[in-house]
Design brief:
By secondary structure, the chain is α+β, with helices and mostly antiparallel strands. The chain contains 3 helices and 6 strands, in the order ααββαββββ. The model is unreliable at 6-29 (pLDDT under 50).
Length: 170
C-alpha cells in the first residue's frame, strides 16, 4: 500500500510543478496595471531608471510629492481649465502616469467613468484639456526608496459635474 501511496503523491507533485512552469512561461513577471510603452502615445525619449521596477505612488508613504504640494496642482487647474468651452458631462476621469527618477513624466493614460462608476468615454473637449494641463505639471519630486531614486506611478482623479472640476484627488 505504501508504494502505491508514494507513487500517487510523487505524481501529484510532478504535475503541479509542470503546471507551475507552464504558467510562468505564459505570463511575464509583470505587475497588474503596469503602463507599457506605446509608440503611438508615449515619448520615445522618456527613460526609466528601473523599467522592471516602477513603484506605486504609495510605496514610500510620502503621499503626493509635488513642488508646492496638492494645493499647487489645484491652483494650476483652476487657472488653466476652461469649463465654458466643454461639453456638460459628469463623472470621474483618472489620469495615471509615470514619474521617472529625474522627476519627468510620461506614459499618460486616461480612464473615465460615469457617476455610477461605469466606464465612460468623455468628450475630448474635457479630456484633452485635462491631459494637456496634467502634462504641463513640471514640479514632480524625485522619490527615494532605501536611499535610491525610483521611478513611480502617479495619478490624478478629477470629479467632474456638468463639465466643471469639483475636486481633484488624491
Amino acid at each position: 500500500m505504501k508504494p502505491i501511496y508514494l507513487t500517487f503523491l510523487l505524481a501529484s507533485f510532478l504535475s503541479c510543478a509542470q503546471e507551475s512552469k507552464i504558467i510562468k512561461e505564459e505570463y511575464p513577471p509583470r505587475h497588474i496595471g503596469d503602463i507599457e510603452f506605446d509608440p503611438k502615445l508615449d515619448n520615445p525619449d522618456f527613460k526609466l531608471c528601473y523599467p522592471k521596477y516602477v513603484f506605486q505612488y504609495f510605496n514610500n508613504s510620502g503621499g503626493i510629492e509635488y513642488n508646492g504640494e496638492k494645493i499647487a496642482i489645484d491652483k494650476t487647474f483652476e487657472k488653466k481649465y476652461n469649463s465654458e468651452i466643454v461639453k456638460k458631462e459628469s463623472g470621474l476621469i483618472r489620469i495615471r502616469f509615470v514619474v521617472n527618477c529625474e522627476g519627468k513624466t510620461d506614459r499618460f493614460r486616461i480612464l473615465g467613468s460615469d457617476e455610477n462608476y461605469q466606464e465612460k468615454e468623455f468628450d475630448k473637449s474635457i479630456t484633452d484639456q485635462l491631459l494637456t494641463i496634467t502634462k504641463s505639471l513640471d514640479g514632480w519630486n524625485v522619490k527615494y526608496y532605501n536611499d535610491s531614486v525610483i521611478d513611480y506611478y502617479q495619478y490624478l482623479i478629477f470629479k467632474i459635474k456638468d463639465g466643471k472640476i469639483l475636486k481633484i484627488l488624491p
